[in-house]
Specification:
single chain; alpha/beta; Glutaredoxin; Rossmann fold; 7-stranded mixed beta sheet; 11 helices
């Protein structure tokens, strides 16, 4: 028979054993929490987790992704960047994030063309792209663009004094060409007189302001490229049509005489009257997110023909007080009614048309053919690429022509669980329960236990 002393020892042993097991379990949980990181998102819409399309994309990226955020040390943007990138890091361990203070690295910020506090530089497989918008959709689409490295060929026409994509002269496009290569595009120059057919994997053909007339056979090759479903970027300049009148007719476009004059350029301190400004943009995929003024030196107005097989959208237009000056650019310029063409004038046109099934299957692209014609090639030149939104506009144009304008549709997450709306009756029941029912229940339970022990 157990004595009171023995029962007391057994009770102390049980309590000690329970304490040891409890401390051991707590230590094991702490050790596991260090070695294994578990995150659970219990929000109704899963707003703190990545969508399925983003997770699927990360699974296709085997190489490391390097993200650098250029945010000041005192900025609250760093916390927002960390939270966004952390969602991606949970599914991709070799995705790294670092912060750089732009105030301490002004040369680097200027070289990368950064303009927003907290702007991201995303690098993958030697390619890079900047990101200003902090959202899952924006970051997912950038990663998708950087992953699409193969068969994105941009072929620049050469042999007629065009602007060179590798040239370093002020009128050349070397800086823009470098930007395109950093985005994963393969840039190539080709003379159609030497090689009478464009590469089969040409994603976009670029005609950048030829200074000499194209041969009729070359114009025919370009026309065949369009008829076969190819996409085209034509950077035109004021002056002669350089033998490409047939190409303009095929696109249903015409060029206005003269050079555009914009009086608003003087407001920005530009004394040359041939500079045109565009500050308002219609709703189009090319101008999406573009909120900076774009600058066009020596531009020509475009005219959309009434009868054309293309769907044409004028996405770049000058102000109403601009005009196309047809007289020599000298002395005081003013609008001459009857000879000059009054504004607003179209500087950029986006053309689309649906491709037959046979052609779309052959190209392997979407069934919508795309063409962009700009009445100026200087805005992407080395001398003017860094002005206003010129670089952003050039990137948007190429992304649209290469079908990179709508890569991934990340579904929006509705935050349904951020508010709790209760009826007055429900509020009264909850308030009465917390103020009276729960305290009385606890008091009653305590009294019951006290009376029961007292009876022993």
């Amino acid at each position: 028979m157990l004595t009171t002393s023995n029962m007391r020892h057994i009770s102390r042993f049980k309590n000690g054993l329970f304490l040891i097991l409890l401390l051991g379990m707590a230590g094991a949980i702490a050790w596991l929490s260090i070695r294994h990181h578990i995150v659970a998102d219990w929000s109704a819409a899963g707003r703190h987790s990545l969508s399925g399309v983003s997770v699927a994309l990360l699974e296709t990226l085997p190489d490391p992704v390097i993200i650098t955020s250029y945010a000041t040390k005192t900025s609250s943007t760093r916390q927002a960047v960390s939270e966004l990138v952390a969602r991606f890091q949970r599914h991709k361990k070799n995705l790294s994030l670092s912060f750089v203070d732009p105030n301490l690295n002004p040369d680097q910020v200027r070289t990368l063309g950064l303009s927003v506090d907290g702007e991201l530089l995303i690098q993958y497989q030697g390619r890079s792209e900047n990101l200003k918008t902090l959202s899952e959709s924006a970051l997912t689409n950038v990663l998708h663009r950087l992953a699409r490295s193969g068969e994105r060929w941009l072929v620049f026409l050469e042999g007629h004094g065009e602007r060179r994509p590798f040239g370093q002269a002020n009128h050349d496009l070397g800086s823009w060409g470098e930007q395109l290569r950093s985005k994963g595009f393969q840039v190539l120059s080709q003379n159609l007189a030497q090689r009478s057919r464009l590469p089969a994997n040409t994603r976009v053909l670029v005609i950048a302001g030829p200074q000499l007339d194209l041969l009729p056979g070359e114009v025919t090759l370009i026309g065949d490229f369009l008829r076969e479903g190819g996409n085209l970027l034509w950077l035109a300049d004021p002056g002669e049509d350089r033998g490409m009148q047939a190409l303009a007719q095929q696109l249903g476009l015409g060029f206005l005489p003269g050079t555009i004059v914009d009086p608003r350029a003087q407001i920005m301190g530009i004394s040359d009257p041939r500079f045109a400004l565009v500050s308002e943009y219609p709703a189009h995929d090319i101008t999406r997110g573009l909120d900076s003024v774009t600058l066009f030196p020596q531009s020509v107005g475009l005219q959309i023909n009434a009868v054309t097989p293309w769907q044409a959208v004028a996405f770049l237009r000058t102000a109403a007080d601009s005009w196309a000056e047809t007289s020599p650019m000298s002395g005081t310029l003013r609008l001459d009614v009857g000879t000059d063409v009054p504004g607003p004038l179209t500087v950029g046109v986006a053309l689309t048309r649906q491709l037959p099934n046979a052609i779309s299957d052959k190209t392997g692209d979407a069934r919508q053919q795309r063409v962009v014609v700009i009445g100026d090639g200087d805005f992407l030149s080395n001398a003017y690429l860094g002005n206003g939104g010129n670089l952003r506009l050039g990137q948007n144009i190429i992304n649209w022509l290469a079908y990179d304008d709508s890569l991934i549709d990340v579904p929006a997450k509705i935050t349904r669980d951020r508010e709790l709306n209760l009826t007055p009756l429900a509020q009264g029941i909850i308030g009465f329960g917390f103020l009276f029912v729960i305290p009385l229940a606890l008091a009653g339970a305590g009294l019951f236990i006290w009376l029961r022990r007292r009876r022993r």
